[in-house]
Amino acid sequence: MDKIGAEASFFGERVVHGYFIVAAAAGLFVDAGVGPVIANYGLGGLRFLQPVKPGDTIRARLTCQQKTVKRQRSAEERATGVVQWAVDVTNQYQEVLAVYSILTLVARREADFPTDIIVE
Question: How far apart are CA 16 and CA 52, in angstroms?
Answer without folding.
Answer: 5
